[in-house]
Design goal:
2 domains; 5-stranded parallel sheet; alpha/beta
């Protein structure tokens, strides 16, 4: 597979920096253009993110063809639209962002991008072992742990409790939305039938 366009979506966290280094190295190795993208949430002042985006693109873009983009709106939707519009061949992004809420948000953004992307997505977990380095030995009681399939954090389950809860909540939201849409359609049909019966 020929890589001409590599996309690096960033939230400016330290994990995003690691993903940026890997995106840069990949783009250099194959001679691809590197796209650096940040999505500003609606209602947020884009001034500071624009400065951060310029800083990040300078840091990762040394010796590369770099294209930057600052978009506003929903992160996953914008990353996917950008990837389609620019014919991206590979997306490189972290599995989680900063701690707390934004970490969970980036986790769900990454999950959506992985599911719906028009190209392969390389996700970078919280800890990456460099080439030629051995992973740090695990304590004996953690040796049997495995990474969560969604977020990459080690635990006993294939999908950790936090990710299970998030997936359940998203499924419940989708079901509720579907029921609301169905109820609205039925209500609309009932109103039409009533108006026909009256006339």
């Amino acid at each position: 597979m020929r890589l001409n366009e590599v996309l690096f979506p960033t939230d400016f966290s330290s994990l995003s920096e690691l993903a940026g280094e890997i995106a840069r190295d990949t783009a250099k190795q194959v001679g691809a253009r590197l796209h650096v993208l940040h999505v500003v949430p609606l209602g947020t002042n884009p001034t500071l993110p624009a400065e951060d985006l310029a800083r990040v693109s300078r840091a990762v873009g040394d010796g590369l063809r770099v294209e930057t983009a600052l978009l506003t709106g929903l992160a996953a939707r914008n990353v996917l639209a950008y990837a389609r519009e620019k014919h991206i061949d590979l997306i490189v992004m972290g599995t989680h962002g900063r701690t707390g809420i934004s970490r969970e948000l980036l986790g769900s953004v990454t999950e959506k991008v992985v599911r719906l992307a028009p190209c392969p997505v390389l996700t970078i977990p919280g800890v990456v072992v460099g080439a030629g380095e051995a992973p740090a030995p695990s304590p004996p009681d953690v040796a049997a742990s495995r990474p969560c399939l969604v977020c990459g954090y080690n635990g006993e389950d294939l999908v950790c409790e936090v990710c299970r809860n998030r997936v359940r909540a998203e499924a419940l939201d989708a079901k509720c939305e579907s029921e609301r849409t169905r109820a609205a359609r039925i209500a609309g049909l009932t109103r039409k039938e009533d108006s026909h019966a009256r006339s």
